[in-house]
Amino acid sequence: MKVKQPDIGASCTAFAPASVTNLSCGFDVLGLAMEYPGDEVRLTVATEKGVRIKNIMNNSGSIPLNPEENCAGFPVCRLYELYGLEYGIEISIVKHMGIGSGLGSSAASAVAAVTAFDALFKTDLSLTEKLEFAKMGEAIAAGDSVHIDNIAASMYGGIVLVRDADSLDIIPLDFPATLWCVVLYPRITLRTEEMRNILPETVPLRKAVIQWGNLAAFIAGLHQHDMSIVKKAMHDEIIEPVRKTYIPNFTEAKQIAEKKGAIGTAISGSGPSIASLAESKAHAQAIHDAWTDRFNADGKKGFIYSSVINRRGAYVKDMYAE
Amino acid sequence: MKVKQPDIGASCTAFAPASVTNLSCGFDVLGLAMEYPGDEVRLTVATEKGVRIKNIMNNSGSIPLNPEENCAGFPVCRLYELYGLEYGIEISIVKHMGIGSGLGSSAASAVAAVTAFDALFKTDLSLTEKLEFAKMGEAIAAGDSVHIDNIAASMYGGIVLVRDADSLDIIPLDFPATLWCVVLYPRITLRTEEMRNILPETVPLRKAVIQWGNLAAFIAGLHQHDMSIVKKAMHDEIIEPVRKTYIPNFTEAKQIAEKKGAIGTAISGSGPSIASLAESKAHAQAIHDAWTDRFNADGKKGFIYSSVINRRGAYVKDMYAE
Prior knowledge:
Two copies of one chain form a homodimer.
Chain A: E1 11-21, E2 30-46, E3 50-57, H1 73-82, E4 88-94, H2 105-120, H3 127-142, H4 149-156, E5 159-164, E6 169-172, E7 180-185, H5 192-197, E8 202-204, H6 205-223, H7 227-233, H8 240-243, H9 250-259, E9 264-267, E10 274-278, H10 281-295, E11 303-308, E12 315-320
Parallel strand pairs in A: 3-4
Antiparallel strand pairs in A: 1-2, 1-12, 2-4, 2-5, 5-6, 7-10, 7-11, 9-10
């Protein structure tokens, strides 16, 4: 495949948002996108052939600079090969989330990289194709346990259902425009792979039925814009009881959010971040403030983010080209 | 509680429809109502105190005439006590479905009985209260494994989600007006309890995730009126593989329906009936005809029913009172 290549020095910066997955009853199948934080990836066309990572801002130190080992770099390398580019590509990454935060940091970098590539080289990839390349980037970070819930939410925006990860079958869900999400990130790191290993391999059928009844109600409540249904549905019989002991302040944070009118509170991804759904900006602000007072009064123990659900997904933030 | 009692000889006949539950990916949580078949229950006010079953039409022989052991009689007995009625009640039942058909026969009788009682004595019960009494009737038939999916579908009509059976939390789902269901009832009997006992007590988490991803997609597809999503979602990883060997002609019936454009085909309840969803009357007719040709050409091997999804649920068919 050939594309018309932009001039040396042309660049494109794409933003891909943080994503909150699982949402209590939707283990491995649900994800939503925040407005912020998010990662930014800039690709610049360079004279010297090959893909290079020029710099990573806010790198906690553990992110590899070798593009073949980097979740933004890897899909760019594959696209670079696929399109047989004649120039080089330099990658700059601005990280706004910690690695292992449970907010889909690696997914956001991968999605932003693919989004920037597609725009800069006008490759006109479909959403599914972009997903496929971003998934390769996520695989670099996640190892054996590649899931596409974070990637799909970050790419599509909104709230998405991953019906089938292998065939990249993503279903964007309907939900009220007033829905907000508040995230408490306690600044510790949990490795996704370890948080998977603590899960049981089998579950009682009885519990699985409770879980899928709740997930089904969650979807129906979202589509019917009836948050009283979603509230009852946000209950996790299987994953949360096992993982919550690894999440600092989980039970207390959940209780505080509940008092402030949260629809529900869940572990974000495999943690350590905690996410609450709120039915309005005012509710979100109340949760945000209460969490700040209790867990981050000095502003040093972590980060708290709140935003309306992001319907845009990844987007091109800046384009410098002919 | 007291109600104004109608005159001796006053009567009310209620109809409650057959129901198809599970619908492949929604084991124990999904149910839909057919337009027909269904059971009819008539209650007549009599001089002699007490509740009596006067007759059962189309009784296959196994339905007890003692009201305390009968799924229509039992809830009437409880309501009779609750309201301290001074007259008697005579019950006539017309069965239009076989016991153990997988079409919610006992549920339909219980729901029709409660519906008739509520109308005849103007007790103005809420849907949830009616559900509670009908559940008592179902318990008479089902023993230890009482589920409310059949009752809920037969009472409410439409397609319902049972989020939580204990708290009778039922969520009516949105779906296209053109949706039909075709049922093949092979005239053999399977005992619900036995069909439960063959199920595994635990399931791999991996398979449970596939199942709830499909169920979530089923609900989203219904609400979005996108049958291509529902079609992909109608896949059962857990229950169908175990039960299908007990269902005569299941695999062939499924293949035939698929060729005729079915959205999906599943075991109805715990069988032996087989149900196909079709996106139009024409598709339903094509499946109906193909199944008739193959499985019931002589009209003796069973029954095939097709109807649009019944949105009305149980209703009063005839009222003879002041």
